[in-house]
Amino acid sequence: MFNYEKYLRANKLPHIWCPGCGDGTVLKSLIRAIDKQGIDKNNIVLVSGIGCSSRTPGYVDFNTLHTTHGRALAFATGVKHANPDLHVIVVSGDGDATAIGGNHFIHAARRNIDITMILYNNYIYGMTGGQASPTTPLGAYASTAPFGSIEPNFNVSELAKSAGASFVGRSTSYHTKQMENLFVKALAKNGFSLVEVIVQCPTAFGRRNKLRTAVEMLKWQKDHAIPVKADLTPEQLEGKFTTGVLWDIDRPEYTEQYAQVIRKVTGKQN
Amino acid sequence: MNQKIKPVFVQGNHACVLGALKAGCRFFGGYPITPSSEIAELLALELPKVGGKFIQMEDEIAAMGAVIGASLTGMKALTATSGPGFSLKQENIGYAIMAEVPCVIVNVQRGGPSTGLPTQSSQGDVLQARWGTHGDHEIIALAPSTIPEIYHHTIRAFNLAEQYRTPVILLLDEIIGHMRELLIEVPDDQIELINRVKPSCPPEEYLPFQMVESDIPPMADFGSGYRYHVTGLCHDETGFPTNDPQKIDAFMKRLNRKISRYTDQIVEYQTAGNQDSDILIMAYGSSARSARQALRLLNSNDKTAILFQPLTIWPFPEKAFQETAKSRKSIVVVEANAGQMKREIERLVNCDIPVRLVSSLNGEPIDPKTIADAVMEVV
């Protein structure tokens, strides 16, 4: 029996997420992955911005930092650069990370600073009541896209990969085991790693888009997720998305590069 | 035995860097902007030599965020900017106030609004320093006028930030940022450095935002075993968000009181000229330089004035100013803006004493003669 209480701030529960929300599932997988990695709670700094997913840090017993909208990666970069011994994890949503925080997102990836980022992608601004986000699919309905979204959406994982991330994975809140395994890999990776998790938001997204319940939305995830190993053609993938390890390379990590600068200018070899 | 310290001939931005390093600053997060970039450039060079960390962030907002993150790990952290960047930083300056994170923000002022006058001077951000971020808050802002003052007040900015667990704004301007003067650094054994108070209780008893008698709760470093929550939301003593009106009220009152109750310790000012003169000149930053020259011009015309120069601009040295202004016949406010502090001065003297403004909005230093002329007109 897994001991979740070791990691939860029990007196902060129940959480604020709506019935049927997928965010709690992500939290569960994250806790399990951290436990699997055996990281000391004192050395974890969990950083978030603003939004539903960004309330995650309040429920876990780490050093937790709930910052301003979109800026989690900026704060996290300061924490990691100042003390590279800390294990820095960022949790963020699609609006937080790719709209208001889009600049920080691409630059954290470019810099390849050793931060693990988990991006809860629910295609919508949930906390503010269902406005369109940069990942809202073309044609989907939102309170600020009442006639269907006319904006093309970001492919978050491709964006991180193009910007320079070392590790990119994608999963869903239906595929909990796969999600957990991707978190383990991302936590172990030295460099900027992103795991995009497609999560259901029946309240703000599903009800507007003919997926009225959490069950319908999870079924949608199950039906539309294609393991990247299946190696399908773009035509076969039309309307679907790939899951699994999408990208995994080794690049020089930022804080290690800076440590080299210090060694160079101080002449110290340790 | 004093260390033998050679004077150096440096520009204001350089003096700021020397002061920051002396104060123990070991982190800089910034973004290039004229006329402050020399601060970033010099720290990029110097910080790694002392094991410190420099980072050029992707924008001004990120730079402010990184500085707060670094400070939470226990580092003394600095950022430097100018008007347009100062506007962008306001969001996270508010966060640092709310979350009580010590840090120093240098604003080398230039003409505004908007892109304004990138290479020319202004004092147009004095009220933005006070009220730039949204919501009710107190702020500490310092306004030196010479290169040695920049050095000393940069050190003081870090000390105040650490002592009061709050962001401190150092207001320079293009004139003093780029001009050069002699500076003699302070020997290490003659310098008073203040470091934030850390908790002495066991981690399980730690309340990061406790209602302590001093109003300034001890602050633990991330990674030191005290696992706690930091948020920009209104929070209770534990650091977690609250909607309880009583707890919000207690927190907000403490947040403001922790600065206001220490005003007497925070304010610094100096006076010059004839203490018995009928005319009071109020000037700060580079304008105080023009005002001091105006005192000399007046002397040579057998006229006098007294200069009141606040070095702490926020909180304003209200009591000292009112004391100094008492029974004067006229006040001349000198500032490179359209009268931002003039309004404050009028409020402080209840409009009982006429207040006249000598200002400049053209990016140039204020001509001492215009100040002397203004004084002679009211004599």
Topology at a glance:
The complex is a heterodimer of chains A (270) and B (379).
Chain A: H1 23-37, E1 44-48, E2 63-66, H2 72-82, E3 87-93, H3 94-100, H4 102-111, E4 115-121, E5 124-125, E6 131-132, H5 156-163, E7 167-172, H6 176-188, E8 193-198, H7 214-224, E9 225-227, E10 241-248, H8 254-266
Parallel strand pairs in A: 1-2, 1-3, 3-4, 4-8, 7-8, 9-10
Antiparallel strand pairs in A: 5-6, 7-10
Helix pairs in contact in A: 1-6, 3-4, 4-5
Chain B: E1 8-11, H1 12-23, E2 25-30, H2 37-46, E3 53-56, H3 60-72, E4 76-81, H4 83-99, E5 103-109, H5 126-131, E6 140-142, H6 147-164, E7 167-173, H7 174-178, E8 180-183, E9 229-231, H8 245-260, H9 263-266, E10 269-273, E11 279-283, H10 286-300, E12 306-310, E13 312-314, H11 318-325, E14 330-335, H12 340-348, E15 355-359, H13 368-378
Helix pairs in contact in B: 1-2, 1-6, 3-4, 10-13
Describe this structure as you would to a colleague:
The complex is a heterodimer of chains A (270) and B (379). With 270 residues, chain A is α/β, with parallel strands linked by helices. Helix content of chain A is 33%, strand content 19%. Chain A has eight helices and ten strands. In chain A, β5 and β6 form a beta hairpin. Chain B has two domains: 183 residues, 3-Layer(aba) Sandwich (Rossmann fold); 107 residues, Rossmann fold. Chain B contains 13 helices and 15 strands. In chain B, strands 3-2-4-5-7-6-13 form a seven-stranded mixed sheet, sandwiched between helices. Chain B has a five-stranded mixed sheet with strand order 10-12-11-14-15, with helices on both faces. In chain B, strands 1-8 form a two-stranded antiparallel ribbon. In chain B, α10 links the parallel β11 and β12. In chain B, α1 crosses α2, α1 packs parallel to α6 and α3 packs parallel to α4. In chain B, 55% of the residues are buried. At the A-B interface, β2, α2, α4 and α8 of A face α3, α4 and β9 of B. β2 of chain A pairs parallel with β9 of chain B, so a sheet runs across the interface.
